[in-house]
Amino acid sequence: MEHKILRLTISAQFGNTVDTVYPTILWDEENTVLVDCGFIGSLPALEKELAQHGLTVKQLTGLVLTHHDHDHMGAAAAVKRANPGIRIYASKAEAPYISAQEKPLRLKQAEEMQKTLPPEQQDFGRAFCDMLSRVEPVFVDEFFSDGDKMPWCGGCRVIATPGHTPGHISLFVEKDSIVITGDAFVLEDGRPVIANPQFTLDMTEAESSLNKLLSLNAKAYYCYHGGVYTKA
Ligand SMILES: [Zn+2]
Hints:
Layout: E1 3-7, E2 10-14, E3 17-21, E4 24-28, E5 32-35, H1 43-51, E6 62-64, H2 70-73, H3 76-82, E7 87-91, H4 95-98, H5 105-116, H6 122-133, E8 142-144, E9 149-150, E10 156-160, E11 169-173, E12 178-182, E13 186-188, E14 191-193, H7 203-214, E15 220-223, E16 228-229
The structure holds zinc ion.
Zinc ion binds near residues 69, 72, 183, 224 and 225.
């Protein structure tokens, strides 16, 4: 069966900096699944990127959210409005924060940090909390557990990679030997490291998740915050 794994490029401006992320599309004859969807307000950018491949948001059959951070699920509610038939997947541990049945842990953390920020960082901290509180929740249709298999692109395995958040997941597209890491790691000078240690909710878990991904027999790792890692 024919299939393709595509990487999209989504940028957004935050103050003076531009942040760029790389959602993945798992595209086969029956499914067109987006893995993470960019920032609040990224829907037009997403439409543009999809159009480059002859796709539209309405054609997406699924959206996997690796975790509840704003840069991964910021556009999820807008995607769901544009395409009400899309199925949204996340781990059971992460779903309550994605659907805001519980207060998002990232917002809680940012509000706690705000109390200890020096005066010159207060404005930035407040803007960050405001932005996090503007992330629109979305209903999760299907819960993933470690080891679950989806038929996408010839077979796709869910890998639980907690640490960055408690219910973080990555995907292993076994046929192509490609791992979609989410934020289980980022690349620094080409090497895999823990993403944003200061925001990582459990460092010990994050370390073992990173090692778990590296121990997979995978030829390439697609990192959401840029770069493709290949083992030497
Ligand atoms: Zn991220």
